[in-house]
Amino acid sequence: MAKCAICEKGAHFGNSVSHSHRKTPKMWKSNVKSVRVKTEGGSKRMYVCTSCLKSGKVERA
């Protein structure tokens, strides 16, 4: 699973708990997109989460 290049957000792990309180492993995936980003040396493709895109921490190329 990819991580955000800006905030290092990745997948989270835990347990899914049923009504009878049985626990099974669960994985929550973050909303990470492959985006072309402006850098000082030109443009570069990196993985960025949508919350970083929305907040303006990254400028698209």
Automatic annotation (TrEMBL):
The gene is rpmB1. Belongs to the bacterial ribosomal protein bL28 family. Keywords: Ribonucleoprotein, Ribosomal protein. The keyword Ribonucleoprotein applies. The lineage of its organism: Bacteria, Bacillati, Bacillota, Clostridia, Lachnospirales. One of its GO terms (cellular component) is ribosome. It comes from Claveliimonas bilis. It comes from the Bacteria. PANTHER family: 50S RIBOSOMAL PROTEIN L28 (PTHR39080), LARGE RIBOSOMAL SUBUNIT PROTEIN BL28A (PTHR39080:SF1). This is Large ribosomal subunit protein bL28.
